[in-house]
Design goal:
The structure holds two protein chains of two kinds.
Chain A lengths: L5 E10 L2 E11 L4 E5 L6 H8 L7 E6 L2 E2 L5 H7 L1 E3 L12 H8 L7 H7 L2 H20 L15 H13 L5 E5 L7 H18 L2 E5 L3 H7 L2 E6 L2 E6 L1 H5 L2 H8 L3
Parallel strand pairs in A: 3-8, 3-9, 6-7, 7-8
Antiparallel strand pairs in A: 1-2, 1-4, 4-5, 9-10
Helix pairs in contact in A: 3-6, 5-6
Chain B lengths: L2 H34 L6 H21 L5 H28 L7 H23 L4 E2 L7 E4 L7 E4 H23 L1 H11 L1 H6 L4 H27 L1 E2 L3 H16 L4 H21 L5 H15 L14
Antiparallel strand pairs in B: 1-4, 2-3
Classes of the chains: A alpha/beta, B mainly alpha.
């Protein structure tokens, strides 16, 4: 268990009479790329919401690096190194691209209110670091020339990439992507595939992915969890999942 | 320029004076609404408390035999801002934060309760009668023809313009340049997402309440000295007017609150000057009704978009 970065067991989420997630288990080791797949409404996003403190799970345990986090508020979970994106892009649309990256580094500019007002040398140094990191990631996702544009005016694919960059400037250990390829064309999806692989190789990030694009999932995942109607259906390496008759049935219906 | 021209200028000056204090109070409504989507109905009371603290400071200094006007002014502002901000912080901490995740209506009712509580708390402690603020600044600058109507800018009005301008500039710089201001804007756009980036949103919300209370305190000191009379009930009307100003300009927008405050102040002054003083509140609140009917998002506000 100690080798697990994230260890979820028996996770349940009940909304009134609806059991959205039932007895979900999930283990992620450092440096892995793990995908969650399943038909629409299977409860994948609900699992994400429980893991990031957006919802409070009604049962089960979530351990992150051996620490129980199922009752920790969202902003503290982010500080532990877990960040996520959303199915519908949630950028600060009225702020510039650069500001989106700077605000994400808010807590790294940890020098207090007065230091910020008077721009002390310590504050300046931390702000320079934040700028450098922002520029690095802007370059990485190809948005350098748009740094001062309002985030809401970017093209859809660019907004998706900015959202990943905004996660990365917080220096996470576990990056959770909720359908990052939704609405992207095949070219953009290929770029995303490349980007996610790079994140793991060059920056040591562990990735948990929800995705419907099977080509992307099969390409980059080390392991895959399949969820159906809130329950775990199967898990394993992509090859096994592809040939699992139960998975095929869940996706295509009884044949 | 004849008499009527100077009369017009006089009304405009009076309107801008009142309008800038409305704007100072309105910013507190608009910033809080922008971030947590709630109308803080206790905000008018915060302004009233700012006035009372300024009065207490001035009275204490007078008893100590200090008669330097600049020293009295500066200490009235500084002490009133500090104590009033503490009230603003405490109101949020006690009455709103525990209700953060509940229905919006519940927080609204809590705000109304807070407003009634604060008003009566000051009434019990200070009595409900009018209190005369010491008028420290008299005189003014008169211009106009030898005979006929003169327009006058009192020194107090000039101080109101100057202090409002300084406060607005400081706020604008804070919001646009500082890291806390950046976090405030992020919270206003998407509170949940800001939290998921590791920012303590409770802290940002507290800062918003503190800023709003500080600006209300500034307005409290200024208006207290301008009118010369305070009582525990001034917060109600001032709060309603500032709320109208915030809605008029587009609630959630800071430049909107300033614009709304100035428009409302000038409208009132013109009604009082050309029509009748008794009608100025009627006109002010008719304006609120018309805005809500025909342009609910206000002059500078964005139309409400349902979040998916």
């Amino acid at each position: 268990m100690s080798e697990c970065l994230l260890d979820v067991s028996d996770l349940s989420m009940r909304f009134g009479g609806l059991l959205a997630v039932d007895q979900m288990a999930l283990k992620i080791r450092p440096g892995e790329i793990v995908s969650m797949i399943g038909p629409n409404g299977a409860g994948k996003t609900t699992v994400f919401n429980c893991l990031t403190g957006f919802y409070q799970a009604t049962g089960g345990s979530v351990q992150y690096k051996g620490q129980a986090i199922e009752k920790v508020p969202g902003y503290k979970i982010a500080r532990l190194g877990i960040v996520r994106t959303f199915q519908n892009v949630r950028l600060f649309k009225g702020m510039t691209v650069l500001e989106n990256l700077l605000v994400a580094q808010h807590r790294h500019l940890n020098t207090g209110l007065l230091a910020g007002l008077f721009k002390t040398p310590g504050y300046r140094r931390s702000e320079e670091k934040a700028m450098a990191r922002s520029e690095f990631w802007l370059d990485k996702v190809g948005l350098t020339e748009f740094a001062n544009r309002e985030a809401g005016n970017l093209a859809y694919g660019q907004q998706r990439r900015l959202e990943i960059a905004r996660c990365m400037v917080t220096q996470p250990e576990l990056l959770m992507l909720d359908e990052p390829a939704a609405g992207l064309n095949p070219n953009e999806t290929a770029e995303l595939d490349q980007l996610i692989s790079d994140l793991r190789r060059d920056h040591g990030v562990t990735v948990l992915l929800i995705e419907h694009d099977m080509k992307l999932v099969m390409d980059i995942s080390d392991r895959i969890y399949v969820i159906n109607q809130g329950r775990p259906l199967a898990s394993g390496v992509p090859e096994d999942i592809r040939n699992n008759p139960e998975v095929i049935r869940a996706y295509l219906g009884e044949g | 320029m004849g008499d009527s021209g100077f009369y017009l200028i006089q009304q405009l000056l009076n309107g801008l004076t009142i309008g800038s204090t409305y704007a100072l109070i309105a910013i507190g409504y608009t910033m809080v609404y922008g971030i947590i989507g709630m109308i803080n109905f206790a905000h008018g009371e915060i302004y009233m408390i700012g006035s009372y603290i300024a009065f207490a400071v001035l009275a204490a200094l007078a008893m100590m035999g200090i008669d330097s006007v600049s020293l009295m002014l500066v200490s009235a502002f500084v002490i009133s801002i500090i104590i009033t901000s503490t009230y603003g912080y405490a109101v949020e901490r006690v009455a709103y934060r525990p209700l953060r995740n509940s229905n919006r209506l519940i927080a609204l009712i809590s705000a109304i309760g807070m407003s009634i509580f604060l008003q009566n708390y000051v009434r019990l402690a200070q009595g409900s009668r009018d209190i005369a603020m010491p008028g420290m600044i008299s005189g003014g600058w008169t211009f106009g023809p030898e005979e006929g109507f003169h327009a006058t800018v009192s020194y107090m009005q000039l101080i109101i313009f100057a202090v409002t301008f300084i406060a607005m500039t400081a706020l604008t710089l804070f919001i646009s340049r500082s890291k806390m201001g950046r976090a405030c804007r992020a919270c206003a756009e998407d509170l949940g997402m800001t939290g998921l980036l590791g920012i303590n949103t409770h802290q940002i919300i507290s800062i918003t309440f503190v800023i709003g209370a500080a600006l209300a305190a500034v307005a409290g000191v200024l208006l207290g000295m301008y009118y010369g009379v305070i009582n525990p009930h001034i917060g109600f009307m001032a709060g309603l007017k500032a709320f109208t100003a915030a809605v008029l300009g587009g609630i959630g927008s800071i430049p909107g609150a300033v614009l709304g405050g100035l428009i409302l102040g000038v409208t009132e002054a013109f009604t009082a000057g050309y029509f009748s003083t008794e009608y100025k509140d009627v006109v002010a609140f008719s304006l609120l009704v018309l805005i809500l009917l025909f342009r609910p998002s206000g002059i500078l506000g964005k139309p409400e978009v349902e979040k998916v």
